Each structure stands twice: as C-alpha cells, then as structure tokens.
Predict the 3D structure of the following.
Amino acid sequence: MSSPNFGTYKRAIVRQIPDSIRDHSEAHEDRGFQGLPIYAPINLEKARQEHEVYTQTLRDLGLEVTVVPADESTPDCPFVEDICVVVGNKALLTRPQGAARRKEVDTIEKVLTDLGLEVHRIRNKRATLEGGDVVFTGHEFFVGDSACSNPKGHKILAETFPEYPVLAIPLDPPKFHLKGAICMAAPGVMAVGESKWGVRAWKKIQKHAKFTYEPLWLPDKVFADHTCDVIFFNGNLVHCKSQEGAESVKVC
C-alpha cells in the first residue's frame, strides 16, 4: 500500500543514454582527479538494455513514463533525478556542481512545465544541489553535505518546501551522493549500507531527525552504491539484481 505521506505516484521521467557517457561520465572523471582507480568504460549496449528494462519496469508498475532524448553534450543526462526534486505538484530545479550538468536543467524545466508542475529553480550561483543527495522520507528531507551539494543549496531546498524539515548529513569523498549510503525502502524504513558512510549517516539521523525510522541494513559493501540506491513508490520497492548485491537482495 502507498503511504499517505509519500502520496501516490503517477509519473516518472527517464532520459536516454548518450554515447558520451562511456568515457566522460562525471563519476568516471572525478575518480581520476582524486587519484582513485578508474572504473571500466561503460558497456553502452548493456547499459541501454538495462535502462530499457528499468523503464519498462516502471511502466509495468503503473507509472506513465516520459522518455527524454539523450544529449551528447551532457554525458550524465540519464541521471535525471539529480536535476530536480519533486514533491507533490511542486518541483525544484537544482544547480549541479559540474558546469556540464547545468546544461541539463533547461531541458528538464520544459518537461516539468509541460506536465503542469509548479516549477522553481535555483538561481544563486554560489549554491549547489543535486537530487542524488536528497532523500525525502515523507516527513522531512535528508540532504548530503557533499562535493555536489552545499549549505546554500540546502537552504533553498528548505525555502522551497517550508513544510518539511531539512537535515544536512556530511558526506566525505569519494562517496558521490547521499543516496549511495541511504535511501527510503518503505514508510519509516531506510535502506542503509554497511559502509562507513552509511553508518555515519544513520548515526546522524538517529540523533537529529525529527521523526523515527527503522534501518534495513544492506551488507554488500563492495556494491554499496547499487544496493542502497533503491526506489520506493506506491508500495513497490525497485532494487538491484542479485548479481550486483546477492546478500542485500535477500534482505530486501
């Protein structure tokens, strides 16, 4: 059953995968800048097959899916959740940390406007915010204080959705987004990775959250970015395949 705090979701937005993501993804390049091991290049054929399965899964679960064409000048455009935060009929267009990703905002603004949403946009050039750092619990927001989202961005999030408290959670590199450490798995239940980032985030939530949550600990540390990044909507939980996190899938 869907939670009255989450509401009932009717639509989803996805964006197709450009060839440029293979060698120019922000996550791929940032690891090189930080001196970390570089991920293997993305297999475009496999990625597109998986993306189509994901898109069809959303349709099969009852959502009307808007598919936005890829843009080769924005390699990370498939990660459309980073570009907006939507609650109810209100949307906040974010301001990503990377200049290349900011090109994505105009396209998503048109999509949201055409869907009839009340659209707000971050204009402050010193603010950064990415949706991958924003976890909505149905009662409040948790937002990563990270390389991608800063306090000025947090403040604008709070101003846009004043009815919901906002709690910042520190996130050290190389962890990219808060949703790589925690996500909502059900009303009042959080999927938490057994990584140092997940443990730190959970301790902060226990101490400072305005509401009470139960943890669903996911043990696959190697695949923590995948196993924690789940999607809960309308009583459904979408998660990674067992090949990417066998122990965590058993928990889910």
In short: Residues 50 and 213 are 32 Å apart (CA to CA). The mean pLDDT is 89. The first helix runs from residue 21 to 24.
